[in-house]
Structures are given as structure tokens and as C-alpha cells.
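Page 42, continued from yesterday. The earlier attempt failed because a stray header line got pasted into the input along with the sequence. Redoing it now with the clean sequence only.
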Amino acid sequence: MPSIDVARRRIRLSDSHVSVLGLLVEEGGIPDELAQARGQLRAVGILEAEDKISGELYPLVSTLMEPRIIARVEVNGPQGTTQNGAVVGDDFIFTHENWPGEAESEYAPVEPEFLVWALARMVDLHRDFTDEADSGEVIVSTMGAFDAVAARMEAAQPEEAVAEGTGAPARLAEVLSQLNCMWRITVAWQGAHAPGNGLAVSALAVWDCGLEGYWLRELPAEPVAEGQVDNSSDLRLRRTSAKELWQLITDLLPDGARLASAPQPQPAS
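This time it went through. C-alpha cells are written below.
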């Protein structure tokens, strides 16, 4: 069910709820498959009489309808994949976070200076207690070998047997045996610096391997287009640090001047 926390400006919505709000803003009809979602929005007061959207949702809806920058954060872990992220508008920035197994995401406002912090928190970026220094260690293999190692790991085969049976580097099996999750951050925006004044995209993919630390996936290089990667594609991983990843997340975003400024207080009438 959707819900709203007026005091903290937090809202829980599913994709279906967001679709209903978008259609109402565009004065479009609500298809039958979204009737239940509309009913839920009415039940909690997000939709008022005659399906008027509550004024409390104006900042979020206006940001979702005309985003300037969209950040998507995909985290793949033992409980499946969660989709999180942030949407930057002209006046507001909202983050959205998904809980494993739940349909709704929590949308909440964030100030521009806290956006990097919010993205880092979504991937649980934390200090590497094993070795803060950048080791620079590199593992080179193929995506086919990675898939084979991952499949045998899921079958609980010993690391030595996995590496020997797949022909993959032993170090790849060692690192994957400590895998907590894989995460990817993708940022897209419209701007003058994009090719042909189109959509610009920046992204990075990382493995969080617990005792083995953080590994940046340098190949296949992000962003990866559909159909671009197959079993023969090169895989290159480089051991990195939380400090470097913080800077890489910062660098994903377009210049700070492009981010929405905090809303200015209106003069009293």
C-alpha cells in the first residue's frame, strides 16, 4: 500500500502508483490494470476528490514529470535485485529506495550537497577494514569464465575445483567466494555536452567482496548496451578502495552547476 509521511516529506509508491499520478497530470485515462493502484491512492488520501493530486505531492510529481538528471542504482545480492536511485529536477531532488521483495519504494527529498552521500549509502559504501590502500591488483578473464565460476559457486563447489573445472584464474574464484553483492550506478542527463545535444550517460560497476574488498569492473566498460557482451567478452577487475569509489561516484554526476539548487524561501506576502 502507498503511504505518506507529511512531517518528513516521505512517500511510499510502487511503479503502478507513479504511473497513475503521471497519467492524471497529463489528463489521460486510467486503464483497467491501474484501477487498483488508483483505488489505493484514494484510500490513503494521496488522491483527493475527483482524483485531484494532494498538494503535498507537488514537489515529487513535478520532479518526476520533468527530470533533468536521473541516477539509477541497481544492487544485486543474495535477496535478489533492488532498483534505487535519484531524480534531479529544476527545484527539487528526490531519492527512491526499494526494499527486497516489496513493490513500493520510498521517495524522499535530498539537498544537492547530500546527493553523492545518498547514492553512496544506497550501495552501502563503507570503509575497507582489510586494506584501505589501493592494491591495484588486476584480474583478467572472460565473461564466459565468470558465468561458469558463478554457476559452480552457486552449486557450493570448492574454490580449487571451480577454478580447475572452468579454466578461470584461481584468484577470480577466491574473490567471488567472498562476494556480498554487485552494484551499478548509471547517471543520464540531457545537455549541451552530450553528443548531438542528446542524452549523456556515465556509469560504473563494482563488486563488493567483503574480506576481499572492492573490485571495479573496468571491462566490460559501463555503460553496457544490450547485446554488447557475450561469453568471449573480456573481463577485467581492479582492486580499489572506498575512497576512490566515492570520487568515482562524484565524477558520474554532471558539473555541480547543473544540479538543482535548493528551493529558495518565498517572501512573506
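Notes: The chain has two domains: 3-123, 138-257.
Reminder to self: strip header lines before submitting.
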